[in-house]
Specification:
transferase; about 250 residues; acyltransferase activity, transferring groups other than amino-acyl groups; 2 domains; 7 helices; eleven-stranded mixed beta sheet; Acyl_CoA_acyltransferase; Aminopeptidase; alpha+beta
Length: about 250
């Protein structure tokens, strides 16, 4: 995703820290994450300082994605204070989920029709749904997606349409022998009607049918966390998204 946005993007695997940073306006394409299992409190302190230093060197803001299950008990207890010392602020929580759940039945929803994203117009609609759902300016989402060949060709990205207008979206992409569910969003005016679940099932159905894969993974927000177990996902690691203090 990051190299699709910018072929010269910062994509590095450092000791204990992975960098995936497009330095574009779409914050989800600007990411660092810690990668070592069993990280203790002292090492956590060091890695958070390193990650924050990488983030400060960039033009555009992004997130440190931290998977709690990689931390030892003493590091979990020290996390809040260590993040504070590194100049990081907790932005929102998440939950890692996975499941050997494919294939899934072809979904149907009485209100919806589904379209695969194959044009820039559809990709703009997809970007705008994410921006509205996450509270980003519309130009930020468009900066991350519009014009992408990858999203129109290799990503199984779908819009859910109600009365011809896009109300929700979801995508899957093949990654390391599984389907990764990415950028699920529902228009704030159309939430709690099952639209997000329906279009996620559609992206899984089509991605699974095309690839033959059986395992899927995702990172759930608080809003999405109750939805995905109904599809067959099981929670694993709690997640934390950090940004730099302003």
């Amino acid at each position: 995703m990051v190299l699709d946005r910018d072929e010269d993007a910062d994509v590095r695997d450092l000791p204990g820290v992975a960098v995936r940073w497009a330095d574009c306006r779409f914050a989800f394409w600007n990411a660092v994450t810690l990668t070592e299992a069993g990280t203790g409190a002292a090492l956590l302190e060091k890695r958070l300082q390193e990650a924050a230093g990488i983030m400060r060197a960039k033009k555009q803001p992004g997130f440190l994605w931290l998977f709690e299950d990689l931390l030892a008990d003493d590091a979990r207890a020290a996390l809040a204070e260590a993040a504070e010392r590194a100049g990081l602020v907790h932005v929102f929580p998440g939950t890692g989920m996975a499941g050997d759940l494919l294939p899934v039945p072809e979904p149907h929803h009485a209100d919806l029709t589904f379209e695969r994203v194959t044009t820039d117009e559809q990709l703009t609609a997809y970007a705008d749904l994410n921006s509205r759902a996450y509270g980003f300016p519309l130009d930020d989402g468009r900066d991350g997606l519009v014009g992408s060949t990858l999203w129109k060709r290799d990503v199984y990205a779908y819009l859910a349409l109600r009365d011809g207008g896009p109300v929700a979206c979801a995508a899957t992409v093949e990654a390391q022998g599984r389907l990764f569910v990415v950028l699920v969003a529902t228009d704030p005016d159309h939430q709690r009607r099952g639209y997000g679940e329906a279009v996620t099932r559609k992206a899984l159905y089509e991605g699974g049918r095309a690839t033959g894969l059986t395992r899927a993974t995702l990172h759930a927000t608080v809003a999405g966390a109750p939805v995905y177990p109904r599809i067959g996902f099981k929670p694993n690691s709690p997640m934390h998204f950090y940004g730099l203090k302003s």
